[in-house]
Amino acid sequence: MVCLDDVCTDATVVEPGGLGDPCNDENPCGTDNGTQLECADGTCALPVNCPEGTAGCACLAGDTCADDLICTGGVCFEPTCTAGTLNCPCDTGNVCSGELSCDEGVCKEPVVTISAGLSVSNPDVRSCQLIIELDDIEATFDASVQGRTKRDGGRLAVAFSSTSDVGPTTVATFTPATNLSSDALSNVTCYDRLGQPVDSPGVALSN
User: Fold this and answer.
1) Does residue 61 lie in a domain region?
2) Domain that holds residue 98
3) N or C: the chain end with fewer CB closer than 10 Å?
């Protein structure tokens, strides 16, 4: 029992907040996969810096960890952590169960890289310049073209030309490509083998 406003009442048990839950001095944060969450701007979040000796972070000097954590492969884990499972030490031979991947001694969800291809359907096209309304992507140009990119604020300027007198079809691949489509293209200008503008170049960007 606790006394609130001179009245005895049952104590309220506050469950520690999970990742993304609201928090304050009366509503602390709990853990996420063994890592203690921090209350940042009223929301439970993962710590910006991984404190040595805590779950999922580097071990302390002498291969030790705080509390009851154990040091395995230079990383602190919960003692109940099963090797080869998510956020636990990698098993013998740096292997993990299922589709998990071993990353610096810890089993983690695999990183899926999505790519988008830039193509041209009009065979008259020999070169183009255009803008992609995203700048956090990287381009890999096909061997059939010479290409270059330049970042312009929050956009990526792209220019390419065919290495032969044959119109390119597959031009480049961009990664990562989340939500990347032809809607992100702007200022598309293409030219034929005589340097004349091509009205309908058929430039497309798709996953």
Assistant:
1) no
2) 81-111
3) N
Q: Over the stretch 128-185, which tens digit does the pLDDT of each residue have?
A: 999 988 767 888 899 999 999 998 777 889 999 999 999 999 898 888 755 667 788 8
Residues sharing a CB contact under 8 Å with residue 102, sequence separation 6 or more, in sequence order: 90, 94, 95, 96, 108
Per-residue pLDDT tens over the stretch 11-69: 444 578 887 788 888 888 888 766 778 888 788 876 767 788 988 888 899 999 998 99
Asked if the structure places residue 106 within a domain, the reply is yes
Question: How do 170-175 and 138-141 pair as beta strands?
Answer: antiparallel
Task: Please indicate, yes or no, whether residues 93 and 169 belong to a single structural domain of this protein.
Answer: no
Residues 6+ apart with CB under 8 A from 148: 158, 159, 160
With contact defined as beta carbons under 8 Å apart, do 74 and 64 qualify?
no
Cβ proximity of 39 and 23 under 8 Å: yes
User: Is residue 96 a part of any domain in this protein?
Assistant: yes
